[in-house]
Amino acid sequence: MLVYQSDTMKFAHMADVHIGSWRDPKLNGMATDAFVKAVELSISHKVDFILIAGDLFNTALPGIDGLKSVVKEFKKLKEINIPVYVIPGSHDYSPSGKTMIDVLEEAGLLKNVFKGTVENDKLKLKFTKDEKTGVKITGILGRRGTLEKLYYQDLDLEHLEKESGKKIFMFHTSITELKPGKKTEMDSTDISYLPKGFEYYAGGHVHIVNQYSFKDHKNVVYPGPIFPANFEELEELGVGGFFIYDDGKIIREDINIKNTFKITIDCEHKSPEEIEQIIYDQIKGKELLNHIVLIRVAGKLKTGKVSDINFREIFTKCYSQGAFFVMRNTVKVVSAEYEEIQIEQKNPEEVEEAIIKEHLGQIKVNGMDSDKELRLTREMMHLFSSEKHEGEKVYEYEDRIKKEIDRLLEL
Ligand SMILES: [Mn+2]
Known about the structure:
Elements: E1 10-14, H1 25-28, H2 30-44, E2 49-53, H3 64-79, E3 84-87, H4 100-106, E4 111-112, E5 116-119, E6 122-125, E7 128-129, E8 136-140, H5 149-153, H6 157-161, E9 167-172, E10 200-204, E11 210-212, E12 220-222, H7 231-237, E13 240-246, E14 249-255, E15 259-266, H8 272-283, E16 291-300, H9 311-320, E17 325-334, H10 348-359, H11 370-384, H12 394-408
Parallel strand pairs: 1-2, 2-3, 3-4, 8-9, 9-10, 10-12, 15-16, 16-17
Antiparallel strand pairs: 1-13, 5-6, 7-8, 11-12, 13-14
Helix pairs in contact: 2-3, 11-12
The chain binds manganese (II) ion.
């Protein structure tokens, strides 16, 4: 069979779509809307294929509505012969190892490129070849608690590096060299663990927009989320987006579903009434139609406490000016009278990670170093959050969990 192969290559690189993110019904469909737009843009760019570097879904069992919309898009892409290559991300997997990605692959709607075998304790990855361009794609999935790090440690790099032709590596992990300053406690993998000499490294997991070329690893790219997944991301990124690779050029495509309007106030030397006034001054006469309003208040109040600020009235005012959604963040406010302990809102994985690390080494277990303890703790937490399989009886479920624990503890 003669397959036409073009010399040039054009593709879309998305990641962290998080279909079903945001609990609020008003924001819940945003990721889906953004994804539909991203597919539309990719089609108008006439890409050869689309890469999704993990976290297509926000949870292992996505809601029917989100799933239906995604399937519709994939079907559309299949009909016009634009293949979709994915790796599952940390959010795509249930604790028992199930992912909707498998269902979509079974239906022929996408290809999971994380494939390989273990030979002599080494992970030997397989390439998936794109027929139109001849490019060879492989990658490593993401797991909760950065457990994918173990795959990198056992990766057969030589086998990947000696493969001829144009190659793409997909990853869903934090790369140490590209880690933003704020996330220093986040576990990460050094760039040297990734195979050298590929044309493009399509990243996901860290919700930042970044691209960098190292000496042996060019075009290492994080596209950030398709739609910001929490308050902080809305503040920092404003909008979501993805990248188009066009024969060596890397082009940013923002996806502007809603505009954001940010108000940030330092409480220092201010009373709750003064803070209210500042907010009213800032929104006065503002056209807020189709805007997400983000109000962040932080610092130590001169008088009173955070609940003295009448946010209800402020919200009502914003909505009366056409705001689509109004949100506030007051976790960093310290009351005048007493010091309240509040926990910064982070994603659950970061909180988990920080708590485990804080408590490592408190209980001494014979023959266990802190690395092993960290790994074991993560796996245990993962296991305990495991849900009952469909059709599984309670006693079967309990028995499975017990067996898994025995396996983990090598009993
Ligand atoms: Mn993600």
